[in-house]
Design brief:
heterodimer; A: mainly beta; 6-stranded mixed β-sheet; 4-stranded antiparallel β-sheet; 10 strands; B: 119 residues; mainly beta; 7-stranded mixed β-sheet; globular
């Protein structure tokens, strides 16, 4: 199985901050990497697919980059509604694994 | 618009079989991959497996011996059976749609249903 390691596991930040979350894969996965946002009691929602493509309807303050084994999700200017847990997911090969999550909290 | 809704018992006894159904409304079940994903309370996400509308399946090897996913295209539903459950199978179970194609993602999710394994 391909392991995905996110860092940090939790992060405190303020509205307006620029935030970066990283995801490292245990082997090269090209650009087969998605990012999801999950709020308490809700299903995950895709933000970024294929490493750098913004899902329709997602604000442009979200961006993704990377390929191979190292990926980043960046939020350029945090908004109150962005405080949530973020997961990366690889679709390179089954089983389609997720990172352990990064909980983004209000400072 | 297309919506997914999970249904099934919220409480299952240890060693019994967990059975859930996902109903696809507002659209066709054809031409997509239909997935089950679970999340233990306070923990991360685990992909369980998928079924293509034509019936082909792919399961997570960690659960493969206990999982069966089936589809009923006439009812626009697909189902999950997980046998010999233990407390470790307590989780919110989500159904989700996966797009076809090389670069894909889960673009549509159900709201999730909590299944507790307890006597």
């Amino acid at each position: 199985d391909i392991q995905l390691t996110q860092s940090p596991s939790s992060l405190s930040a303020s509205v307006g901050d620029r935030v970066t979350i990283t995801c490292r894969a245990s082997q090269s996965i090209s650009s087969y990497l998605n990012w999801y946002q999950q709020k308490p009691g809700k299903a995950p929602k895709v933000l970024i697919y294929a490493a750098s493509n913004l899902q329709s309807g997602v604000p442009s303050r979200f961006s993704g980059s990377g390929s191979g084994t190292d990926f980043t999700l960046t939020i350029s200017s945090l908004q109150p509604e962005d405080f949530a847990t973020y997961y990366c997911q690889q679709t390179y090969s089954a089983p389609y694994t997720f990172g352990q999550g990064t909980e983004l909290e209000i400072k | 618009q297309v919506q997914l809704q999970e249904s099934g018992p919220g409480l299952v006894k240890p060693s019994e079989t967990l059975s859930l159904t996902c109903t696809v409304s507002g659209g066709s079940i054809s031409n997509y991959y239909w997935n089950w994903i679970r999340q233990p309370p306070g923990k991360g996400l685990e992909w369980i497996g998928y079924i293509y509308y034509s019936g082909s399946t792919n399961y997570n090897p960690s659960l493969k011996s206990r999982v069966t996913i089936s589809v009923d295209t006439s009812k626009n539903q697909f189902s999950l059976k997980l046998s010999s459950v233990t407390a470790a199978d307590t989780a919110v179970y989500y159904c989700a749609r996966r797009l076809t194609g090389d670069y894909w993602h889960f673009d549509l999710w159900g709201r999730g249903t909590l299944v507790t394994v307890s006597s």
